[in-house]
Amino acid sequence: MEVHCQGCAGCCLDWRPLLEADDGRDVGGRGAARSGSSEDEQEGRTSRRVPLDGDYNFVALTRDEVRAFLESGAAPALTPRFWRVDDEREGVEIDGHRVAAVAGRPTFFVGLRKPPKPVAPFGREEPAWLPTCVFLDPTTLQCRIHDSDRFPDECGAYPEHNLALEQETECERVESQFGGERLLEAGHDDPEGLLLGPQALGAKLFCHPRPDDLEGIVDRLAAGELTPADRAECLAVAAASSPGTLATSPHHYERGYERALQTLEGSEDAAAGDSATVEDGEWVGPAIDEWHRRRAAAGGTVPSPSIARTVEERRGAPETPGWDALE
Predict the structure, then answer these.
(1) Sign of CA dihedral 113, 278, 251, 198
(2) 107 by DSSP, 3-state: which?
(3) How many whole angstroms separate alpha carbon 116 and alpha carbon 292?
(4) Mapping DSSP to helix (H, G, I), strand (E, B) and coil, where does residue 309 land?
(5) Pairwise CA distance, residues 16 & 170, whole Å
């Protein structure tokens, strides 16, 4: 597998608003990310399961990865994804939405959030506000955690998983819209880690054991208004899940909820335990909040991507090496 990622990051951001901008329409930040309901709908396909959020390129994390993010103090980087279904046999109704479920338990993924950032991918000279992975450096368009043990397996397996499933890769979509060569070698060796079917339960596809506890949460998710307690509830269930089963561990649930809520609410008590580990992710929540504030106050202006040094790196975000160091 060989890909050319310099100047791209097409799999780490929602670049669809750039096409709207080229047609003379506005490139929004958070609003544009939610203006379309799903990738399937944007591309004219029909889907039996439609995400309640509008997040593009959603990377599903495993249970162990969710636990690692919680322990590092980076819970604000995570968000749940639920699906709307039409068939009443496949879901349960919560807040007026029929949500996909297994054995009556609402199912969800956990992935990385995409706050608005000023980025200029695909050789564009002027930056635009685009929903961008919380860990992507807008200046270099490189991942801040690429070489760390928190780099998600799904990110590392891309685009091999797409090819194994005979699906179009983001590399190919970028090529068709913006030109250039991104997917240089398309072979794959039937990569592991796809976690399809029953083996995904409790490992990547999480089942909430108490549907009533999701009342209000599902509605706020669909509106893009999740609270810290909402996120903590879903992250705790994911952290407490048992791979291959519907079971959850009460101990891991309580531990996960406490850790997530402390970090999400910015409590000083989040440093309990191994402070060196917790501090590693403390920059994430404040940086996300500031990106949203800056986008809301920007009006029609877009700052230089280098402003990320103030928003992220001065708060402790890992620096990226740049492309010269990789040649």
Answers:
(1) positive
(2) strand
(3) 6
(4) helix
(5) 12
Q: Provide the 8-state DSSP code for 253.
A: H
The token duo for 310 is 């103030």
d(CA 82, CA 62): 16
DSSP state of 13: B
Rounded distance between C-alpha atoms, residue 59 and residue 283, angstroms: 21
In DSSP notation, 136-167 reads: EETTTTEETTTTSTTS-HHHHHTTHHHHHTT-
Among residues 3, 57, 13, which one has the least CA distance to residue 172? 3
Q: Give the tokens for residue 269.
A: 């008590």
Q: Are 122 and 178 in contact (CB under 8 A)?
A: yes
Under DSSP, the state recorded for 60 is P
Asked if omega into 159 is within 30° of 0 (cis), the reply is: yes
**DSSP secondary structure letter of residue 185:** E
- Helix, strand, or coil here: 12? coil
| Residues 52-106 pLDDT 10s | 998 999 999 999 999 999 999 999 999 999 999 998 889 999 999 999 999 999 9
